[in-house]
Protein backbone atom coordinates (compact mmCIF):
# COMPACT_ATOMS: atom_id res chain seq x y z
CA UNK A 1 0.00 0.00 0.00
CA UNK A 2 1.26 3.39 -0.93
CA UNK A 3 1.23 5.67 2.07
CA UNK A 4 2.21 9.03 0.68
CA UNK A 5 0.99 12.08 2.50
CA UNK A 6 -1.41 13.80 0.11
CA UNK A 7 -0.06 17.17 1.12
CA UNK A 8 3.45 16.10 0.30
CA UNK A 9 4.89 17.10 -3.02
CA UNK A 10 7.00 13.96 -2.94
CA UNK A 11 5.93 10.73 -4.59
CA UNK A 12 9.12 9.08 -3.31
CA UNK A 13 9.86 10.73 0.04
CA UNK A 14 13.04 10.24 2.06
CA UNK A 15 12.43 7.59 4.74
CA UNK A 16 10.74 8.57 7.98
CA UNK A 17 10.62 4.92 9.01
CA UNK A 18 13.53 2.76 7.92
CA UNK A 19 12.03 -0.66 8.56
CA UNK A 20 8.55 -2.14 8.40
CA UNK A 21 6.59 -2.88 11.56
CA UNK A 22 3.72 -5.35 11.57
CA UNK A 23 1.82 -8.06 13.39
CA UNK A 24 4.86 -9.72 14.95
CA UNK A 25 5.96 -6.45 16.57
CA UNK A 26 2.41 -5.78 17.80
CA UNK A 27 2.20 -9.28 19.28
CA UNK A 28 5.51 -8.76 21.11
CA UNK A 29 4.24 -5.44 22.48
CA UNK A 30 1.01 -7.09 23.60
CA UNK A 31 2.99 -9.69 25.49
CA UNK A 32 4.96 -6.99 27.34
CA UNK A 33 1.81 -5.04 28.21
CA UNK A 34 -0.05 -8.11 29.47
CA UNK A 35 2.91 -9.55 31.40
CA UNK A 36 2.46 -7.43 34.50
CA UNK A 37 6.24 -7.41 34.81
CA UNK A 38 8.47 -4.37 35.22
CA UNK A 39 8.68 -2.33 32.03
CA UNK A 40 12.36 -1.62 32.64
CA UNK A 41 15.50 -3.76 33.00
CA UNK A 42 13.76 -7.08 32.54
CA UNK A 43 13.84 -10.23 30.48
CA UNK A 44 13.19 -8.58 27.10
CA UNK A 45 16.26 -6.43 27.50
CA UNK A 46 18.29 -9.51 28.43
CA UNK A 47 16.96 -11.45 25.43
CA UNK A 48 17.57 -8.58 22.98
CA UNK A 49 21.11 -8.09 24.29
CA UNK A 50 21.84 -11.81 24.02
CA UNK A 51 20.52 -11.87 20.46
CA UNK A 52 22.71 -8.88 19.55
CA UNK A 53 25.78 -10.48 21.17
CA UNK A 54 25.23 -13.57 19.06
CA UNK A 55 24.53 -11.55 15.92
CA UNK A 56 27.52 -9.21 16.24
CA UNK A 57 29.89 -11.73 17.82
CA UNK A 58 30.96 -9.51 20.71
CA UNK A 59 31.30 -10.55 24.34
CA UNK A 60 28.99 -7.76 25.54
CA UNK A 61 26.03 -5.99 23.98
CA UNK A 62 24.34 -3.41 26.19
CA UNK A 63 21.27 -1.36 25.33
CA UNK A 64 21.00 2.36 25.88
CA UNK A 65 18.35 4.92 24.96
CA UNK A 66 19.78 6.06 21.60
CA UNK A 67 22.71 5.86 19.23
CA UNK A 68 23.75 9.33 20.35
CA UNK A 69 23.97 8.15 23.96
CA UNK A 70 25.87 5.04 22.81
CA UNK A 71 28.61 7.12 21.15
CA UNK A 72 28.79 9.57 24.06
CA UNK A 73 29.24 6.69 26.53
CA UNK A 74 31.77 4.96 24.27
CA UNK A 75 33.82 8.16 24.27
CA UNK A 76 33.46 8.33 28.05
CA UNK A 77 34.79 4.77 28.46
CA UNK A 78 38.05 5.81 26.77
CA UNK A 79 38.97 8.06 29.76
CA UNK A 80 40.32 10.84 27.56
CA UNK A 81 42.57 13.36 29.29
CA UNK A 82 43.20 17.03 28.41
CA UNK A 83 45.66 17.25 25.53
CA UNK A 84 44.74 13.86 24.10
CA UNK A 85 44.02 13.71 20.39
CA UNK A 86 41.17 11.94 18.62
CA UNK A 87 40.90 11.39 14.87
CA UNK A 88 37.39 11.36 13.39
CA UNK A 89 35.62 11.12 10.08
CA UNK A 90 33.95 14.33 8.90
CA UNK A 91 31.48 12.45 6.68
CA UNK A 92 28.84 11.24 9.14
CA UNK A 93 25.92 12.34 11.27
CA UNK A 94 26.93 14.85 13.94
CA UNK A 95 26.31 12.38 16.81
CA UNK A 96 29.40 10.38 15.74
CA UNK A 97 31.74 13.22 16.62
CA UNK A 98 29.97 15.86 18.70
CA UNK A 99 30.34 14.07 22.08
CA UNK A 100 33.99 15.13 21.80
CA UNK A 101 32.91 18.78 22.15
CA UNK A 102 32.37 18.01 25.84
CA UNK A 103 35.99 16.86 26.25
CA UNK A 104 39.13 18.98 26.39
CA UNK A 105 40.81 17.11 23.54
CA UNK A 106 42.23 17.99 20.12
CA UNK A 107 40.12 16.63 17.28
CA UNK A 108 41.59 15.95 13.84
CA UNK A 109 39.28 15.35 10.90
CA UNK A 110 40.66 12.82 8.45
CA UNK A 111 39.60 12.66 4.82
CA UNK A 112 37.48 9.96 3.18
CA UNK A 113 37.81 7.64 0.18
CA UNK A 114 36.25 9.18 -2.93
CA UNK A 115 34.22 6.07 -3.79
CA UNK A 116 32.95 4.86 -0.40
CA UNK A 117 32.97 7.99 1.81
CA UNK A 118 34.62 5.83 4.49
CA UNK A 119 37.79 6.82 6.37
CA UNK A 120 40.84 6.94 4.11
CA UNK A 121 43.51 4.77 5.73
CA UNK A 122 46.47 6.91 4.59
CA UNK A 123 44.82 10.11 5.76
CA UNK A 124 44.15 8.47 9.14
CA UNK A 125 47.73 7.29 9.52
CA UNK A 126 49.15 10.69 8.53
CA UNK A 127 47.29 12.38 11.40
CA UNK A 128 48.55 10.06 14.15
CA UNK A 129 50.84 11.65 16.75
CA UNK A 130 52.19 10.29 20.05
CA UNK A 131 49.12 11.88 21.73
CA UNK A 132 46.54 10.15 19.52
CA UNK A 133 44.23 8.01 21.67
CA UNK A 134 41.35 7.07 19.41
CA UNK A 135 39.75 6.99 15.99
CA UNK A 136 35.98 7.36 15.61
CA UNK A 137 34.70 6.17 12.26
CA UNK A 138 31.38 5.37 10.67
CA UNK A 139 30.55 2.55 8.27
CA UNK A 140 29.08 5.03 5.83
CA UNK A 141 25.64 4.05 4.56
CA UNK A 142 26.23 0.56 5.98
CA UNK A 143 29.25 -0.25 3.84
CA UNK A 144 32.01 -1.45 6.19
CA UNK A 145 35.16 0.67 6.30
CA UNK A 146 38.53 -0.99 5.50
CA UNK A 147 38.76 -2.38 9.01
CA UNK A 148 41.67 -4.81 8.54
CA UNK A 149 43.95 -2.03 7.30
CA UNK A 150 42.58 0.49 9.82
CA UNK A 151 43.01 -1.86 12.79
CA UNK A 152 46.57 -2.75 11.70
CA UNK A 153 47.52 0.94 11.77
CA UNK A 154 45.55 1.57 14.99
CA UNK A 155 47.15 -1.36 16.86
CA UNK A 156 50.63 -0.35 15.74
CA UNK A 157 50.12 3.07 17.34
CA UNK A 158 48.03 2.02 20.37
CA UNK A 159 44.97 3.86 19.05
CA UNK A 160 41.48 2.70 20.14
CA UNK A 161 38.79 2.48 17.48
CA UNK A 162 35.11 3.30 18.00
CA UNK A 163 32.90 2.04 15.17
CA UNK A 164 29.69 3.98 14.63
CA UNK A 165 27.50 1.15 13.33
CA UNK A 166 24.28 3.20 13.13
CA UNK A 167 23.96 2.28 9.44
CA UNK A 168 25.73 -1.05 9.49
CA UNK A 169 23.38 -3.54 11.17
CA UNK A 170 23.13 -6.44 8.71
CA UNK A 171 26.52 -5.75 7.10
CA UNK A 172 29.28 -8.32 6.78
CA UNK A 173 32.98 -7.62 6.39
CA UNK A 174 35.11 -10.61 5.42
CA UNK A 175 32.75 -12.89 7.34
CA UNK A 176 32.62 -10.72 10.45
CA UNK A 177 30.15 -8.13 11.72
CA UNK A 178 30.69 -4.40 12.26
CA UNK A 179 30.55 -3.82 15.99
CA UNK A 180 33.10 -6.59 16.55
CA UNK A 181 35.84 -5.23 14.28
CA UNK A 182 37.16 -2.34 16.41
CA UNK A 183 37.16 -1.76 20.18
CA UNK A 184 33.59 -0.49 20.71
CA UNK A 185 30.60 -0.65 18.37
CA UNK A 186 27.71 1.83 18.65
CA UNK A 187 24.31 1.04 17.13
CA UNK A 188 21.17 3.13 16.67
CA UNK A 189 17.64 1.78 16.54
CA UNK A 190 16.10 5.14 15.67
CA UNK A 191 12.94 5.08 13.57
CA UNK A 192 14.94 5.69 10.37
CA UNK A 193 17.55 2.94 10.91
CA UNK A 194 17.86 -0.64 9.64
CA UNK A 195 15.77 -1.92 12.55
CA UNK A 196 13.97 0.09 15.22
CA UNK A 197 13.17 -0.37 18.91
CA UNK A 198 9.95 1.60 18.54
CA UNK A 199 11.46 4.90 17.50
CA UNK A 200 14.47 5.37 19.77
CA UNK A 201 17.18 3.09 21.09
CA UNK A 202 20.86 2.27 20.94
CA UNK A 203 23.44 -0.38 21.83
CA UNK A 204 27.14 -0.68 22.63
CA UNK A 205 29.12 -3.82 21.74
CA UNK A 206 32.63 -4.64 23.02
CA UNK A 207 34.69 -7.34 24.77
CA UNK A 208 36.15 -5.61 27.86
CA UNK A 209 34.51 -6.76 31.17
CA UNK A 210 35.63 -3.60 33.00
CA UNK A 211 33.83 -1.46 30.42
CA UNK A 212 30.72 -3.62 30.90
CA UNK A 213 30.77 -3.02 34.64
CA UNK A 214 31.26 0.74 34.27
CA UNK A 215 28.61 1.07 31.55
CA UNK A 216 26.07 -0.93 33.53
CA UNK A 217 26.58 1.40 36.49
CA UNK A 218 26.22 4.55 34.41
CA UNK A 219 23.07 3.46 32.60
CA UNK A 220 21.40 2.48 35.86
CA UNK A 221 22.03 5.67 37.81
CA UNK A 222 25.16 4.62 39.65
CA UNK A 223 28.29 6.74 39.51
CA UNK A 224 31.26 5.52 37.51
CA UNK A 225 33.97 6.20 40.05
CA UNK A 226 37.23 4.82 41.25
CA UNK A 227 36.11 2.94 44.37
CA UNK A 228 38.18 1.18 47.02
CA UNK A 229 37.04 -0.81 50.09
CA UNK A 230 36.17 1.45 53.02
CA UNK A 231 37.49 1.04 56.54
CA UNK A 232 33.89 1.78 57.63
CA UNK A 233 32.87 -1.66 56.48
CA UNK A 234 34.33 -2.92 59.72
CA UNK A 235 32.13 -0.45 61.65
CA UNK A 236 29.07 -0.97 63.83
CA UNK A 237 26.44 -1.37 61.08
CA UNK A 238 25.94 -4.87 59.85
CA UNK A 239 25.39 -5.39 56.15
CA UNK A 240 23.17 -8.36 56.85
CA UNK A 241 20.38 -6.09 58.24
CA UNK A 242 17.44 -5.98 55.80
CA UNK A 243 17.51 -2.18 55.41
CA UNK A 244 21.24 -2.32 54.68
CA UNK A 245 20.52 -4.55 51.66
CA UNK A 246 19.15 -1.50 49.87
CA UNK A 247 22.39 0.34 50.49
CA UNK A 248 24.22 -2.11 48.24
CA UNK A 249 27.95 -1.65 48.62
CA UNK A 250 27.53 2.07 49.41
CA UNK A 251 28.75 1.80 52.97
CA UNK A 252 31.67 -0.44 52.27
CA UNK A 253 33.34 1.61 49.56
CA UNK A 254 35.41 4.75 49.43
CA UNK A 255 35.37 6.91 46.29
CA UNK A 256 38.68 8.33 45.11
CA UNK A 257 37.50 9.92 41.85
CA UNK A 258 34.23 10.33 39.92
CA UNK A 259 34.43 9.69 36.17
CA UNK A 260 30.70 9.97 35.42
CA UNK A 261 27.85 10.84 37.78
CA UNK A 262 25.66 8.09 36.32
CA UNK A 263 22.48 8.50 34.33
CA UNK A 264 19.36 6.62 33.37
CA UNK A 265 20.01 5.32 29.89
CA UNK A 266 18.51 1.87 29.68
CA UNK A 267 16.14 0.85 26.88
CA UNK A 268 12.51 0.14 27.86
CA UNK A 269 11.16 -3.44 27.80
CA UNK A 270 8.72 -2.44 25.06
CA UNK A 271 11.58 -1.17 22.90
CA UNK A 272 13.67 -4.29 23.55
CA UNK A 273 10.75 -6.62 22.72
CA UNK A 274 10.18 -4.87 19.39
CA UNK A 275 13.94 -4.83 18.72
CA UNK A 276 14.12 -8.58 19.25
CA UNK A 277 11.43 -9.19 16.61
CA UNK A 278 12.99 -6.66 14.24
CA UNK A 279 16.39 -8.34 14.58
CA UNK A 280 14.81 -11.65 13.53
CA UNK A 281 13.42 -9.86 10.46
CA UNK A 282 16.73 -8.17 9.60
CA UNK A 283 17.44 -10.49 6.67
CA UNK A 284 14.07 -9.70 5.10
CA UNK A 285 14.37 -5.93 5.71
CA UNK A 286 17.96 -5.68 4.46
CA UNK A 287 17.05 -7.97 1.54
CA UNK A 288 14.47 -5.46 0.31
CA UNK A 289 17.01 -2.62 0.58
CA UNK A 290 19.53 -4.70 -1.35
CA UNK A 291 16.98 -5.45 -4.07
CA UNK A 292 16.17 -1.74 -4.50
CA UNK A 293 19.87 -0.84 -4.45
CA UNK A 294 20.55 -3.48 -7.13
CA UNK A 295 17.85 -2.01 -9.36
CA UNK A 296 19.26 1.51 -8.91
CA UNK A 297 22.86 0.36 -9.44
CA UNK A 298 21.99 -1.47 -12.70
CA UNK A 299 20.24 1.68 -13.95
CA UNK A 300 23.20 3.89 -13.10
CA UNK A 301 25.81 1.48 -14.45
CA UNK A 302 24.57 2.27 -17.98
CA UNK A 303 25.04 6.01 -17.56
CA UNK A 304 28.48 7.56 -18.18
CA UNK A 305 27.49 10.66 -16.21
CA UNK A 306 27.87 8.88 -12.86
CA UNK A 307 30.21 6.73 -10.87
CA UNK A 308 29.40 4.15 -8.23
CA UNK A 309 31.58 2.34 -5.70
CA UNK A 310 31.91 -1.33 -6.59
CA UNK A 311 31.11 -3.71 -3.79
CA UNK A 312 33.70 -6.48 -3.45
CA UNK A 313 32.67 -10.08 -2.81
CA UNK A 314 33.90 -10.06 0.78
CA UNK A 315 31.47 -7.28 1.76
CA UNK A 316 27.73 -7.55 2.36
CA UNK A 317 26.19 -4.08 2.10
CA UNK A 318 22.83 -3.50 3.85
CA UNK A 319 22.27 -0.17 2.01
CA UNK A 320 21.10 2.03 4.81
CA UNK A 321 21.97 4.74 2.29
CA UNK A 322 22.24 4.45 -1.48
CA UNK A 323 24.89 6.82 -2.77
CA UNK A 324 26.25 7.71 -6.19
CA UNK A 325 28.42 10.47 -7.61
CA UNK A 326 27.85 12.71 -10.62
CA UNK A 327 31.02 12.97 -12.73
CA UNK A 328 32.09 16.56 -13.35
CA UNK A 329 32.29 17.64 -17.01
CA UNK A 330 29.81 15.05 -18.33
CA UNK A 331 27.12 17.54 -19.38
CA UNK A 332 25.06 17.56 -16.23
CA UNK A 333 25.92 18.90 -12.80
CA UNK A 334 25.09 17.29 -9.47
CA UNK A 335 22.87 20.24 -8.57
CA UNK A 336 20.91 19.89 -11.84
CA UNK A 337 20.40 16.19 -11.12
CA UNK A 338 19.03 16.91 -7.65
CA UNK A 339 16.73 19.68 -8.98
CA UNK A 340 15.39 17.33 -11.66
CA UNK A 341 14.78 14.53 -9.13
CA UNK A 342 13.00 16.93 -6.78
CA UNK A 343 10.86 18.20 -9.68
CA UNK A 344 9.92 14.58 -10.40
CA UNK A 345 8.75 14.12 -6.80
CA UNK A 346 11.83 12.36 -5.45
CA UNK A 347 13.08 13.71 -2.15
CA UNK A 348 16.87 13.87 -2.08
CA UNK A 349 18.82 14.24 1.15
CA UNK A 350 22.55 14.67 0.73
CA UNK A 351 24.11 13.06 3.75
CA UNK A 352 26.03 14.54 5.54
CA UNK A 353 27.19 18.14 5.63
CA UNK A 354 30.94 17.88 6.37
CA UNK A 355 31.17 18.06 10.14
CA UNK A 356 34.37 20.10 10.35
CA UNK A 357 32.47 22.95 8.64
CA UNK A 358 29.64 23.04 11.16
CA UNK A 359 29.72 26.12 13.40
CA UNK A 360 30.70 24.19 16.54
CA UNK A 361 33.84 22.91 14.84
CA UNK A 362 34.68 26.08 12.91
CA UNK A 363 34.46 27.74 16.32
CA UNK A 364 37.30 25.46 17.36
CA UNK A 365 39.41 26.51 14.39
CA UNK A 366 38.41 24.01 11.73
CA UNK A 367 38.34 25.35 8.18
CA UNK A 368 37.33 24.80 4.57
CA UNK A 369 40.16 22.95 2.84
CA UNK A 370 40.87 20.65 5.76
CA UNK A 371 39.27 17.60 4.08
CA UNK A 372 39.39 18.31 0.33
CA UNK A 373 37.85 15.02 -0.87
CA UNK A 374 34.95 15.18 1.60
CA UNK A 375 34.29 18.79 0.62
CA UNK A 376 34.49 18.23 -3.15
CA UNK A 377 32.11 15.28 -2.97
CA UNK A 378 29.55 16.96 -0.75
CA UNK A 379 29.48 20.26 -2.60
CA UNK A 380 29.75 18.91 -6.17
CA UNK A 381 29.29 15.15 -6.69
CA UNK A 382 27.37 13.26 -4.06
CA UNK A 383 23.70 12.18 -4.28
CA UNK A 384 21.77 9.91 -1.90
CA UNK A 385 18.60 8.30 -3.21
CA UNK A 386 15.61 7.00 -1.24
CA UNK A 387 16.20 3.29 -0.50
CA UNK A 388 14.15 1.70 2.27
CA UNK A 389 12.01 -1.44 2.70
CA UNK A 390 8.59 0.23 2.61
CA UNK A 391 9.20 1.71 -0.87
CA UNK A 392 6.70 0.09 -3.23
CA UNK A 393 7.69 -1.44 -6.57
CA UNK A 394 5.85 1.49 -8.19
CA UNK A 395 7.97 3.99 -6.30
CA UNK A 396 11.13 2.13 -7.28
CA UNK A 397 10.18 2.21 -10.98
CA UNK A 398 9.27 5.90 -10.72
CA UNK A 399 12.66 6.57 -9.17
CA UNK A 400 14.45 4.62 -11.93
CA UNK A 401 12.72 6.67 -14.64
CA UNK A 402 13.25 9.95 -12.81
CA UNK A 403 16.90 9.07 -12.45
CA UNK A 404 17.42 8.28 -16.16
CA UNK A 405 15.62 11.47 -17.08
CA UNK A 406 17.53 13.61 -14.59
CA UNK A 407 20.88 12.38 -15.89
CA UNK A 408 20.19 12.29 -19.62
CA UNK A 409 17.08 14.39 -20.20
CA UNK A 410 17.21 17.61 -22.21
CA UNK A 411 17.32 20.60 -19.99
CA UNK A 412 17.58 23.29 -22.71
CA UNK A 413 13.81 23.88 -22.85
CA UNK A 414 13.94 26.27 -19.95
CA UNK A 415 12.06 23.71 -17.89
CA UNK A 416 13.87 21.40 -15.56
CA UNK A 417 13.32 17.73 -15.02
CA UNK A 418 9.56 17.40 -15.12
CA UNK A 419 9.17 17.67 -18.90
CA UNK A 420 11.98 15.27 -19.68
CA UNK A 421 10.68 12.98 -16.95
CA UNK A 422 7.32 12.90 -18.69
CA UNK A 423 9.07 12.13 -22.00
CA UNK A 424 10.96 9.26 -20.45
CA UNK A 425 7.72 7.84 -19.06
CA UNK A 426 5.85 8.13 -22.35
C1 LIG B 1 21.33 7.98 13.55
C2 LIG B 1 22.77 8.09 13.77
C3 LIG B 1 23.31 8.30 15.04
C4 LIG B 1 22.49 8.63 16.24
O1 LIG B 1 21.56 7.69 16.57
P1 LIG B 1 20.24 8.10 17.38
O2 LIG B 1 19.70 6.78 17.81
O3 LIG B 1 19.34 8.80 16.42
O4 LIG B 1 20.63 8.96 18.51
C5 LIG B 1 24.69 8.28 15.19
N1 LIG B 1 25.48 8.11 14.13
C6 LIG B 1 25.01 7.95 12.88
C7 LIG B 1 25.96 7.75 11.77
C8 LIG B 1 23.63 7.95 12.66
O5 LIG B 1 23.16 7.80 11.42
Automatic annotation (TrEMBL):
Question: Residues where N6-(pyridoxal phosphate)lysine occurs?
Answer: 193
The record's annotation in Pfam families points to: DegT_DnrJ_EryC1
What InterPro entries does this protein's entry cite? DegT/StrS_aminotransferase, PyrdxlP-dep_Trfase, PyrdxlP-dep_Trfase_major, PyrdxlP-dep_Trfase_small
Source domain of life is Bacteria
Q: What are its GO biological-process terms?
A: polysaccharide biosynthetic process
A molecular function GO annotation: beta-galactosidase activity
UniProt family annotation: Belongs to the DegT/DnrJ/EryC1 family. L-glutamine:2-deoxy-scyllo-inosose/scyllo-inosose aminotransferase subfamily.
Protein name, as recorded: L-lysine 2-aminotransferase
Gene that encodes the chain: nikC
Amino acid sequence: MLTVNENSRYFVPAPAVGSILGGAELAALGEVVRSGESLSQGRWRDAFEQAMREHVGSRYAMTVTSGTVAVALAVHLLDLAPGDEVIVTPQTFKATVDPLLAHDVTVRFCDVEPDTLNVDVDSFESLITPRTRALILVHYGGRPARMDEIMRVARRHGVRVIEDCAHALGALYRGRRPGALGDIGCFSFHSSKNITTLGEGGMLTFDDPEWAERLDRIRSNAADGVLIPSPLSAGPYQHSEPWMMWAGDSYEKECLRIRHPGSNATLSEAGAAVGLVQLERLGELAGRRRWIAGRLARTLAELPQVRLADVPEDIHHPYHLFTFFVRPGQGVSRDEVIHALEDAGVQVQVRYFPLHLRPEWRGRGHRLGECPVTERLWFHEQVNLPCYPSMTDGQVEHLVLALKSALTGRRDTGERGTSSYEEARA
